[in-house]
Amino acid sequence: MSAGNEHESGKLSAAIDDSQRRARKAVEPGYFEYRNLRDDEFWRALPPFADVDRETFLSTKWQMQNSVYGMPKLLAFFEGWADPAFVADVEKGFHIAPMAVRVTPYLLSLINWDSPYDDPIRTQFIPLGSNFEEDHPMLTLDSLSEQVDAPVPGLTHRYADKALFLALDTCPVYCRFCTRSYAIGVDTDTVEKVSLKVNPKRWEQAFAYIESRPELEDIVISGGDAFNLPAKHLKAIGERLLNMKNIRRIRYATKGPAVMPMKLLSDPEWVEALTDVHAMGRRMHKQVAVHTHFNSANEITEITRQAINVLFEHGITVRNQSVLQTGVNNTVESMTKLVKRLGEINVHPYYVYQHDMVSGVESLRTNIATALEIELGVRGCTAGFNQPLVIVDAPGGGGKRSIFSFEHYNRETGISVYRAPAVKLGQNFLYFDPLHSLSAEVRARWQVAGEREEMIAAAIKAVGD
């Protein structure tokens, strides 16, 4: 074939007839539901808050003073309007939960009290005895071994260039599924907590260690929750870290925007402290970001958008870290809606965590197979930079691994094996699916020590050297 004919052939093969051209099918009107953020006085539908005006509801001080904390306040909150059978179920759940109950009026008002058993917000914060599932026999209280990797109290140094600084042990709310149920909040009927109180002397131990390790560049300031740090401490910690030559990045970890967004609208001193640290970082060419924690699209309202706008207008990057939970976000549809709604308010959907192995909340855990299906179903719903990474924080201190990166996964026994050569070379890290996701036969095997050892040995053998 001559060069000219080859050229003509290429033109013909590349040509597309107009009848072959296709546009994507138009989306249904319901597609845009993620853009519809609640802007009504929704809290007035709840009897305890029926007479609360908007100005009062948007007060951080009022939210803190009227948060439901502990069983007596929870019972008082329900008095006169809640189903007695539901209240009895809550009381039973309270006594077996590893976390104390603490919920803001904002969250309480967003719960669908006509169907509280199925509500994704109630599921996260208010325990029910009827939902209790037996803990997996391989579960430990500090499943991520944060205290083992802590060279000084309240500082976990697991990755070469990053450390986790636990500045305090309180939060504006207490999540039932908290990884740090070994330390956060007050003692419960089932857990005596490790103390990580606000203590500048303890902090100095952490700062001295960070300065002594030139490889450390990235510090996560967490706890507890940075929202609970007074403005002066928030600023002092940020400035102390930024002034270290080795530090290039700091992140404030807070669930606050998801559970009490009005703080960003009504606490100018705290916002100023954060924005001052951020501005200082910009001048020093160092990164200062906020990492937050939305799990359900139902948590995001017009109040949330206005609060996030305060940070956005200052150029502060906000990233989100969700936890995969049954009844909250364990479907492609619910996770897609969350991802899209986060994008709508300029929050980057950064991580979706496989639920850690936390005591007392087995009913919330999904298996690895569910996480794989959700990642597959959600990917492509939005731009790649707004696509969350689905990960498992490997029990035993292996750190964050891609959900797909297992060396071995046996869906029958529920054992997955991960490796983390850049974190702890030569070790295997095992995650165990919840027993309720396994067959009755396999659940019975997990109750026998010898059978457990056999299943684990088989999983490790399947990985090889």
Number of helices, where a helix is a run of at least 4 consecutive DSSP H or I residues: 17
What is the count of distinct domains? 2
CATH superfamily of the largest domain: Aldolase class I
> Low-confidence stretches at least 5 residues in length (pLDDT < 50)?
none
Number of E strands: 14
What general form does the structure show?
Answer: globular
CATH architecture of the largest domain: Alpha-Beta Barrel
What does this structure look like?
The chain is an alpha/beta fold and 465 residues long. The chain has 2 domains: 43-131, no CATH class; 155-404, Alpha-Beta Barrel (TIM Barrel). 34% of the residues lie in helices and 14% in strands. It has helices at 3-14, 54-57, 60-65, 71-78, 84-94, 105-110, 120-125, 200-212, 231-242, 256-259, 263-266, 268-283, 302-313, 332-344, 368-378, 440-446, 449-463; strands at residues 68-69, 102-103, 155-159, 162-166, 218-222, 249-253, 287-292, 317-323, 348-353, 389-394, 399-402, 408-410, 415-419, 428-432. The chain has a 9-stranded mixed beta sheet. A 3-stranded antiparallel beta sheet has the order 12-13-14, with helices on one face. Helix 9 (231-242) packs parallel to helix 12 (268-283) and helix 14 (332-344) crosses helix 15 (368-378). 41% of the residues are buried. The mean pLDDT is 92.
Concise overview:
This protein is an alpha/beta fold.
Attribute tags:
465 residues, alpha/beta, TIM Barrel, 2 domains, three-stranded antiparallel β-sheet, 14 strands, globular
Which helices and strands, and how do they pair?
Layout: H1 3-14, H2 54-57, H3 60-65, E1 68-69, H4 71-78, H5 84-94, E2 102-103, H6 105-110, H7 120-125, E3 155-159, E4 162-166, H8 200-212, E5 218-222, H9 231-242, E6 249-253, H10 256-259, H11 263-266, H12 268-283, E7 287-292, H13 302-313, E8 317-323, H14 332-344, E9 348-353, H15 368-378, E10 389-394, E11 399-402, E12 408-410, E13 415-419, E14 428-432, H16 440-446, H17 449-463
Parallel strand pairs: 4-5, 5-6, 6-7, 7-8, 8-9, 9-10
Antiparallel strand pairs: 1-2, 3-4, 10-11, 12-13, 13-14
